[in-house]
Amino acid sequence: MNANRLNPKMITVAREARGLTQLELAEKLSLSTSQMSRIEQDFTEVGEQHIKALSSVLNYPEEFFYQEGENLPPALALRKRNIVAQKVLLPIEAQVNIYRLSIEKLLKAMGQTNFQIPVLDIEKLGSPAEAARKLRKIWKVDKGTIINLTKVLEDNGIYVIGFDFNTERVDGMSIVANGTHPVIFSNKRSLGDRQRFTLAYELGHLVMHLHTNPSFTRDISHEANEFAAEFLMPEKDIKPDFKDGVTINILADLKRKWKVSMQALLYRANDLGVITDNQKRYLINQFNSLNIRRREPAELDIAREQPMKLRDTITLYKTKQRWNVKQLALFLNSNEDEFLNKYS
């Protein structure tokens, strides 16, 4: 048995990651709900027999339940549809935290603990758009289209992870490892154009809101959308593309160029004053009549970007330690099959 003290918070994380309620887990372990509750609240000592049962039922190695840490809320606002049931969000947040714990352990082992994301206070800069322009300048992003946004983020120290949220109602969220290293998660079910906007949206939250304590009266979600629009479609670069007006065909051509959705381009044209609100509504009606509002034409699909930074970091550490996959998985408190599914 592990010599360290069991961390009951990890039982809760593991249970929620598997989408189980306390009652459901209690039934699988032949315990009462009150017993299960007392175990998770650290009011009852957990014996070796229960640990083995937890490991078997929840499909995590026993070492998982002895690691330090707790379930932290995602940083700021996540990008999602208006209404998402809590039973859908809990497994996602738990899985995000499991990734965070693994990254924290890996960073500590490799001595990579210091990182500072740019802090862009829009109360000083004036607007989210100005924050986006400033960040492009700080990061030396070339003008025009960002060909690979994921690479830009990873080159500047941000971990990007794509995994299946098991719903299309949540696009992405971000969390901070070690209190310093931002990690952005995007839903594998999203198409490439939505993935890119989600990454830019989460980036906006991280640079504008993480360290600036915005007041509760501010609409930080709207600010993140404004930031993302300017970061992906800079006004001075995209405005000339609307010189011939805005039509469905023009939006389709511009989608190929800017790698964002036709609707994002339409809203951008409206925000920049290129078209009126009435013209926007007319084009939205065209989207509806052509049945392309929820699903734009497949021939225009933008390929999803593939994150590399975390996988490369893990591979580097594996090589340094001269470990096999099983040893590395155990180090990250994971079973081998799940490790390969998450990180390969």
Describe this structure in words.
- This protein is an alpha+beta fold.
- The chain has three domains: 71 residues, Orthogonal Bundle (434 Repressor (Amino-terminal Domain)); 179 residues; 26 residues.
- Strands 1-3-4-2 form a four-stranded mixed beta sheet, sandwiched between helices.
- A hairpin with a 3-residue loop joins strand 3 and strand 4.
- Helix 7 crosses helix 10, helix 9 crosses helix 10 and helix 16 crosses helix 17.
- The protein starts with 7 loop residues before the first helix and ends with a helix.
- The model has no long low-confidence stretch (mean pLDDT 93).
Outline:
This protein has 344 residues and is an alpha+beta fold. It is 52% helix and 6% strand.
Strand order of the largest sheet: 1-3-4-2
- Secondary-structure-derived class: alpha+beta
Tell me, what's the shape?
A: elongated
Rg over CA atoms, rounded to whole Å, is 23 Å
Query: What percent strand?
Result: 5-15%
Instruction: Determine the mean pLDDT.
Output: 93
Whole-number tally of structural domains: 3
What is the rounded distance between the termini? 30 Å
| Helical content class | 40-55%
Q: Sheet with the most strands?
A: 4 strands, mixed
> What is the count of β-strands?
4
Low-confidence stretches: none
The number of helical segments is 17
